[in-house]
Amino acid sequence: PDYTRPLPAMPAGPEAALPAEEGSPSLWGVEGEFAGSGFRVSERWLTLGRDSSQCGLAFPYDAGEVSRRHCSLKFEAERGLFLLEDHDSSNGTFLSGGERLEPGIVYELRPGSRFSLSGTRHWFEVQV
Known about the structure:
By secondary structure, the protein is mostly beta strands. It is 0% helix and 34% strand.
């Protein structure tokens, strides 16, 4: 035949983790793999985990304590809050007080709040 069968559109990839900019919402590594590094957070979900095809902030594949698609974070400018959701990760996402996030529930974080992936190894802080 003299025609080409169209292929389905490729799904959009994850939003890439871009370096933090002063005065903009950001995620900062406090301890662990990304300690000292800052990343911009927008109104689109930024997903953290080991699978770079699903996550904008990808951990090394040998970081087995972090799930392939661990959690996602975004900034809601209207209210000045960060939103954090765990994706049923194996080892959990925790708030600074030790509370483990319920998978699929969106938690509100104020600037200055901290959370960790898989217990106490990978700590992050959200800032504006």
